[in-house]
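ok so i was messing around last nite and threw this chain in just to see what happens. nothing serious, just curious
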Amino acid sequence: MSEPSPGLVSAAIQAITQHIRAEGLAPGDPLPSEAAMTRQLNVSRTVVREAFRSLSAMRL
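result:
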């Protein structure tokens, strides 16, 4: 399996970050599922999973 495109991951990170801010989510609040974000962003589950990992590493 190939690595996801860094550009797609960056776009997914930005979209998820915007969702967090728009919804006023706090640490520990649930995010949409990988499947829901995959459909919403029209990217693969691998891209969403990598975006979630990156955001977690940044403690967002």
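not much to say yet. The chain has three helices and no strands.
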